[in-house]
Amino acid sequence: MHIFLEFPKKYTKGIELHAQTARLEIADLQGVGVEFSGRAEEAVVREVSGKVELDSNADLRVSLEAFSGRLDFNQISATSRVRVPEGWPFRAALRGMGNRIDYAIDGDRAEDFSDSEAENVIELNGMRSELLIEKRANKESPERGSLYLLNLRLRAHIPGRRRPFPQVFRMRAAWRVSMRSII
Questions:
Q1: What angle do CA 23, 176, 78 make, to 5 degrees?
Q2: How many Å apart are CA 102 and CA 34, to the nearest integer?
Q3: Pairing status of strand 100-105 against strand 61-76
Q4: What does each C-alpha distance from 23 to 59, 68, 87, 90, 151 come to in angstroms?
Q5: pLDDT of residue 8
């Protein structure tokens, strides 16, 4: 099952989303803050500028593709991985207690390759969590499985829509999705 949500650019300044999903895609959002809470195994952030906040106590794999802004991980006792493109400048920030950020290049451990002067930020908040920031030299898409229980993709335009809309989507299976658009 796939759920595709679009938002009007003119009226949307922030999106809060709660879900349990195998894959989360956030795409084509410019200057809009997105806060995701819940569980996701994999997240793809594509063609996005602004702040993306991922609140999850589960391990998470994130792939950044054409992203500019701030990416925050808020976690407790979780290990997550974020893949950044080669040559993408970012600053890493570490907050909370007992957290650690490690670095890798094409799967091999590496020294800190973040840039303390960069405008893009990757931040780890929480307690007893780890974040592996991996640089990929190739331009291939991240590995993908063949079956996804739920696919959420956020877009920032609905033709003909005049106002933002708070809605709650409920599904009969074990998933619950709620979305609130904030002005």
A1: 50
A2: 25
A3: unpaired
A4: 13, 21, 26, 24, 5
A5: 77
Cα–Cα distance measured from residue 24 to residue 139, given in angstroms and rounded to the nearest whole number: 20
Sign of dihedral through CA atoms 74, 70, 94, 60? positive
Query: What's the confidence (pLDDT) of residue 4?
Result: 77
- Predicted pLDDT at 29: 86
Q: How confident is the model at residue 142, as a pLDDT?
A: 41
User: Which of 131, 134, 115 shows the shortest CA–CA distance to 123?
Assistant: 131
Are the CB atoms for 21 and 151 separated by under 8 Å? Answer: yes
> Which residue, among 146, 154, 91, has the nearest Cα to 117 in the 3D structure?
91
Could you tell me which of 13, 79, 74, 73 has the C-alpha nearest to residue 45? 73
Q: Which residues of the chain have pLDDT under 50?
A: 141-183
Angle among Cα 154, 159, 32 to the nearest 5 degrees reads 40
CA atoms within 13 A on the CB side of 92: 19
| pTM for this model (two decimals) | 0.74
